[in-house]
Amino acid sequence: MMNWPTTFMEPESLRQRLAAMSILDVILCSEDWLRRYQYNPRWDEDAALASVRNGAGDEIYIVFTPEGVIVKGFDHESGMSPYAREDGEIWPGIYEQTPSSLLDRLNDEALGKEDVTFCLWRESGDQVWRCGEIDFKGLDDGSRFLLGMIYEAPQDYVDWAEDYYDMKLPVDIVAQVYKGEPVSEEMILALNPERDVRIALKEIYEIGK
Known about the structure:
Distance between the termini: 34 Å
Number of strands: 7
Number of domains: 1
Structural class: alpha+beta
Shape: globular
Oligomer: single chain
Radius of gyration: 18 Å
Largest sheet: 5 strands, antiparallel
Order of helices and strands: EHEEEEHEEHHHHH
């Protein structure tokens, strides 16, 4: 195996960021199937699941477990996709060196384990993210594109969401959610005056468990 070649967030920062973006999507969009970001802290008895999906067939699943964190990404246009290969197999090296305790978490049918163009992981106690040793043959695995959808700064989320949801957003309120501050009715209405506050707060409560 090898160290992941680019800088990526620490696991807890990653979890907090994904939860925050999921909360914001709940506020901005009442239809969960239209949201890009989802976070379920009770996905399994001892694991949380986050997902990022752009609606065009590209997706990331991130599972947070006591053993560590595993990230599986799929860029449907990548030449490393199983669908782009004559044999239809997963690109060599993506999973072979992944710790079984983390890889087994992807066996849930809903996660589409076979639909993968990159995978990285961080075992509990590790100081760096790791990945398999792969011969890319000059191809792009889509990781830069997909991981770039996890916005570290509130302004970056605002820039995306204003275009996607076609609405103006107060960056100061988005920053409060990013900081993990409790979401109030006033914050919800400042972000989306049309949102049913009661329903939104119920969903937000589930994310924050």
